[in-house]
Specification:
heterodimer, A: alpha+beta, D-Maltodextrin-Binding Protein, domain 2, Dipeptide-binding Protein, domain 3, 17 helices, 18 strands, globular, B: mainly alpha, MetI-like fold, two-stranded antiparallel sheet, 13 helices
Amino acid sequence: MTTTGWRNGLQAGIAALALALAVPLAATAQVNNPGLLVHAADDEPTTLDPAQVEPGEGGETVILQVYDRLLDIGPASPELIPSLAVAVPSVENGGISSDGMTYTFMLREGVTFHDGTAFTADDVKYSWDRAMTMDLPEGNAGALSDVVASTEVVDDMTFRATLSEPSASFLNSAVVSMVASIVSQDAVEANGGVEAGTPNPFMAGNMVGTGPYKFVAWNRNENIQLEVNDDYWGENAKLDVRIEIGGDPDVRVLGLRAGEFDTIETDPSFIADLEGVEGVTVYSGGLLLEPLHIGFNLNIPEGALPSEDTIPVDFFHDPRIRQAFNHAFDYEAFLNGPLAGFGAFNAHYTPIGIFGHDPNAPVYSRQNYAEAERLFREAGVWDEGFTVSVITEEGNLFALMCLVLKDSIERLNPKFRINVLAVAESVFDDAHAQNPLEYAMWAKNADPAADPNFYMQAYQHPDGEWGEVHGFANGYRDAERVASLIDQAAVELDPAKRAALYSELQTMLYEDPMWLIGAQEGVVSAHRDWLMGFAMQPLWPRPSLKFAFFDK
Amino acid sequence: MQLRDYILRRLMVLPVLIIGVSIVVFTLTRIGGSPVGIYLSHEMTPDEVAEIEARFNLDKPVWVQYIYWIRGIAMGDFGWSGVAAAPVADVFPLKLAATMELAFASGLVALFLGIALGTYAGARRNRLPDHLTRIVAVSGASLPQFWFGILLLIIFWAHIGIAPIGRSDAAIFASIAHPTGLYTIDAILAGSPTALWDAIWHLVLPSITLGYGATAIVARMMRSALVEELQQDYVDAARAKGLAERIVLKRHARRNALVPTVTVIGLTFGFLLQGTITVEIIYRWPGLGRWMADSVLRGDQATLMTYVLFTSVLFLVVNLIVDLVYANLDRRVTLGK
């Protein structure tokens, strides 16, 4: 080739590259994949069966779109709205009995399942009874069975549930939960029926609901496809949906920038790559209802701790030590570092955004070394020092929270040592499920819920799920008072009185913390500008999106 | 010993070897950690954990678990994959097909590109094209796959928007049956040019990414072999006969140079299979590599044991075949006593 030929070739190459780079700029004005919403999810569901799905797990995202429940939560506020029930039961409208024990739901007429069968009260009873009968350990049947004593079909369009005791949180925590989704009785009975303690393989991989979307296909490791249900009882969805599963997070970000994806699941650490990108909107409203916490174990078996740990098994029985850890943590570093500024600090243990959160309650939000040192000295561990391990999953926010704790504590006193044991998720889950727990501390996030009673029962009650495992009764300054307040609030039907009880608890638990709450993570999402009707509701399962609202 | 007796003896030993391998695989995997973690959620109570253990027979002594595992395999049940949320036996053939198709396509890229580049460079030894080809070859061998893959993705998927990621267009995938799991073959069997084009188009970027590294090896091998062949006397004789240089190269030198190159190509296939992990993650290719990477990270032992057992048995069988072929071809090989 002559010199001129090389030069011409080079010029042609540069021109082609320039054209190639110009294309996406021009393309940003167009709408990609019209009529189809492409959502890039971060993980594969483990099941699509409402009776089997774990709260917070990827399957809930799909269940939310395909199944309906009796009641729902709207996009704009935490208020309950009718769904398959035509009204939210209350004492005033006769839906709730005066003793708070019986809930009657008037059902919507003319609703059909995606298989064409008619929806009746039999399906509601069947769906709830099914979940409670199966009672799968990985599922959330307890949300129903812990409060529901019996279910009853009053007539074709009336369903009644009788509770085992009055519950102020029944509608908010049980009726709207994914486990309470209404499935087609005919479809289940034709495909394996119900067997106690045994998953239904058909329902784990197929869906027959009444929701705005019909299930089309689940190509594992690839995508899940949904199509608009044209016979939906409410306003029809506008876009079919393809949920792209998994893959590298950088590729999801790249796909959103390129317009190949309309919405992506991401975390705050990727937001810097998306801010200011033409055609992309970063949404950061609200907070996830899953506080990031580090647990203190007050029930450590003798000789169980890692050999490096020097603390006695009753180390965290002393509330001053738990307080000192809370004071020593560098909250600002965690919020502005790993969370990229998206988050807030919440009280023990009522997340911001749900009923009962008291904005005036004291909150650990600022590192206070002076107070931490005073408390450690009072507790008698300052001069001698200690080494303690904290176990967590590797490679995520939990591990980073542990590293912030390590840095915070070790900088306070060189004699203090925190060993961060960052392990694979399955190893963590295995260790975390033991009772008694063989680690002094662990880091994770809370399960999400729409009612404070869930958090208080699970994470603060001395006889609750974690209270029992962690031995809270060994360490509360006044365990009976904590239990009494939580139990009273659980059945108090007067909202003002109930709020006052939670407020008192939040103040009390500040002085007597059983957790170190690093932060309440902010809701962060990114989507293309061409997406209309975008709405996020933290009370919906992650990623807190209902695709039926979207249009292009 | 007669060849027939030798074959019979090897075939009789094979099941023993497979059982031995299965014991090693099972033991090593169990040493690696508890198998129950993948089935747990982080809020399960000890009672619920016990239920899960009972469901998968993990509450039994380890040797009983092994018996259950082997019995399951004999009945076609390889356990439940927590990562794929499906029985391993259902998912494994699909993933294997996806990976094999990708590796095969990458092999084709390496084969044709490597031979072409090697021939081009070998025929122009120590001239500019040879140096340029060397740069291309060295780049292929030294560029990290994850970097090269992301680079192609940024240019051709994100910027230009002409290349897709994933394995197929969802609508086109649903339009035909998939009896083999090899989408190109399925498309041909279904007589669908659209599906065939879609399958090939989805293969382009991943197979170039994966095949580029192997291209370098093949090209360098081909070049060296060709240079050596071109110095042989028969090449001089061919030229002396007055044959055109093109014919000397294509009909004589290149053909002989292909012999060692083909050996390298065969070995390269193993390299391609290993490399699929990175490429499958980048391009969201639903193959064995991505599945195994997830399984290792999340402790999905049912999947891992199946994979390791599969490759071990494959190795045993291939080794047996090679021995038999070798014994048949070379009579100097003693068949034991």
